[in-house]
Structures
1.
Amino acid sequence: MNKEYIEKKQNILFTFFENAKTKNKIPHLILLHSDPKANLLDIAFYLAKSINCKEDTFACNNCPRCEKFDKQIHPDFHFIDGSDHTIKKEEVDELQNHFSLGAIENDTTVVYIINEIQNITSEASNALLKFFEEPKVNVVAILTTTNITKVLPTIVSRSSLVNIKVDEDIYSDIYKITQNTAVSTVISNITGNKQQILQLANSTEFLTMVGVCLHFMSSLQTNEKQATFVLLNEAIANFKQQSKALLFYKVLSIILIDSINKQNSNPFNLNKELLFEKKDKIISIINLLNQAIYKQQANLNMIGIIGQINYILLK
Ligand SMILES: [Zn+2]
């Protein structure tokens, strides 16, 4: 990530930040919001690094300050990840205590990133906002969200909002790694985050998962009963564990959505004529998968979900 990338691909962010930093008026709360497909977290990290680079408006990636940030040894940077847990008040309190005396290094702005800020308790968000109402130290929080409608209105109204665009070139970058159209299409629909892309592209388990979904689709084209067996024998056997099940639902729903879209370039090599005849069933399954994905906290059980899919297919 570098200045040229931001200037070329993220012109809203470029103008916003260039302006703010030149005038020495970087807002205390910046809320970056985007579609899940954007490389939001990579951009948030680059922005955090840019705040303390003195060589240029955006991080030069060469000076000692940038290098320190890249090595993740910067004492005045903090990261809270709301993508894997709900952010509680204790975490915000801990931040405040840590930074109550100001930055550890001279002439430095304390920066923290709070990823997926919608996953914060209202108690923690009140503590956070209070901290920013009386800034005793030079501190900037970069908040991110892939679901702006779920962010507490008190946070949205206090933040400078910047929309991050989806980088359409991401697909070709992923293809360079996987050399596989189906896998690349699935990954580019799941995430734009470089680290996650690499993780998925290099995971044998993930490749198996895409394979099972494609096996399901080819069975579905001709024989619904056989498709139900694929789910029972291959999906449940391999991906029963909750986090794997969730990823499986995402992959399957991406392919199913594509299967009823006749305009697409057919990255999964499906017989769309045959599948279109089963459109109603496919839509019911997509709705069911979406419910399963978004109600993930409800401790759902893959055997139950697959039972419901198979019921739709066989009725
Ligand atoms: Zn630098």
Note: The mean pLDDT is 89.
2.
Amino acid sequence: MSESKALSPVKPVGMELVYYYPCPHCGRRVPLIAPTQPARVQCDSCRGQFPVVPADEKTVSFLKTIMDSGRAGIDPSFL
Ligand SMILES: [Zn+2]
């Protein structure tokens, strides 16, 4: 009774911007999903902690809007 129907490729319904912050202890580029509040983060390599300058919430929101939450940025051959 189960149909072996091939799933068609799924389109994104959301996106995030990843910011990289260089760890002052070991130099690793620590990826963070755009933090919009000042925060203290922990390096996932050396475990050292450091404060980061937050992302501008309006800019992040604007970029998500012009990207239509990712839908405007997919491979054109899948449109
Ligand atoms: Zn580190």
Note: Residues 18-70 form one domain.
